[in-house]
Amino acid sequence: MVVAPLTLSSLALATLFVAALPFLIYRRLRRPLALKPRDAIAGIAVFALFAMVIERALNDFVLHRNEATAEFLSHPLAFVVYGALAAGICEEVGRFIGMRLLLKRAAAKSGAAALAQGKAEIATDGTALTYGLGHGGAEAWLVGVLVQIQWLLFAVFENRGELDGYLSNLPTESLMRIHLILASLTPQTAGIFALERVAALVFQIGLSVLMWRGLRAGWRGILPLAIALHALVDVPAAMFQAQLVPLAAVDAVYAVGAVIVAGLLFRTFRRPAVVA
């Protein structure tokens, strides 16, 4: 079987777009909002540690290594609740810790008087935006781009007739599954991938701005709220994984939600420059 050239090019373009988007947004807004690379680095580090290490280790134990929890979570509803809460708790606790450290650093540098006035407001909101770009950009790359590059390589080897030899160490069942996935790829698959990754980036930026403003206001309920909202965002994907809803419905929900959040973010950052 052969992956059509149109499908292959569509997947490549979608992957390049998702890979470049966080950098393009940062470059476009760097000067107007005084964005700092260290804030993005903080977001990248938090996602890598709390989502890629802690959350994955938790999921491996709960879903595979512990027979009691694995059996309980085999029920679709239990899996949906666990999957949404696990992602929400791990990522938002990490975001809370990372942003508290950034806030302390900003307070120490700017001083309480400067923060009390309106002079640093755009810069501090810019910190949240930059952190969100780092957090969401790391997710886009580690969960999306790198995985998609792997599938692109598989597709190239498939078209050359070299895939079986390249993956000769895999069991036959796993190899057949890869062949079936490659056969199911279409240009629409590329569009779905881009939609999901862009929506995830928008949600991560929105959650970062929400967390930042809650911390600046000293609101103790910001962490539970962020966990609940993050879990709510992950519910449709978890329901799809549990085969409770079709992918089209999930993507429609994410598209509408991303447009709403993007609109709120645009209104948040569409302000006149502050002159010191």
TrEMBL record:
It holds the Pfam family YhfC. Keywords: Lipoprotein, Membrane, Transmembrane, Transmembrane helix. The keyword Lipoprotein applies. It comes from the Bacteria. The keyword Iron-sulfur does not apply. The chain crosses the membrane at residues 6-26, 38-57, 77-97, 222-240, 246-266. This is Transmembrane lipoprotein. It comes from Paraburkholderia xenovorans (strain LB400). The lineage of its organism: Bacteria, Pseudomonadati, Pseudomonadota, Betaproteobacteria, Burkholderiales.
